[in-house]
Automatic annotation (TrEMBL):
Residues 31-43, 50-59, 67-77 have a biased composition (Basic and acidic residues). It comes from Brachybacterium fresconis. Transmembrane segments: none annotated. It comes from the Bacteria. This is DUF2188 domain-containing protein. Residues 1-77 are annotated as: Disordered.
Length: 77
C-alpha cells in the first residue's frame, strides 16, 4: 500500500503526482485532474492507499480519496 500526493509546482507550472515521503515525483501533468487520475492508478497498482489533493495557492490538503481498501473515515449519510 502506498499514499500519493497531488501538488502544484510553482517553479515548473504543472501538477505532480508523487508517493508520500518521496523526493521525486512519479509524473508531471498539465491539470490537477490528470495528476489525480494518475496518482489513483499508482495507488491501485500498489495495493491501495490514499490520494491527497493539495490546493494550488497554499498547498493545504483539499481532498482525500481512499483507493483499493476500506475507507477509515467514510462520509456519513
Amino acid at each position: 500500500m502506498a499514499d500519493y500526493e497531488v501538488q502544484y509546482s510553482k517553479g515548473t507550472g504543472d501538477w505532480s503526482a508523487k508517493r508520500a515521503g518521496s523526493g521525486r515525483s512519479a509524473g508531471r501533468y498539465d491539470t490537477q485532474a490528470d495528476a489525480h487520475d494518475a496518482a489513483r492508478g499508482y495507488a491501485e497498482r500498489s495495493g491501495g492507499g490514499e490520494v491527497r489533493d493539495h490546493r494550488k495557492d497554499n498547498n493545504q490538503i483539499r481532498n482525500t480519496d481512499t483507493v483499493g481498501k476500506k475507507d477509515p473515515y467514510p462520509p456519513k449519510g
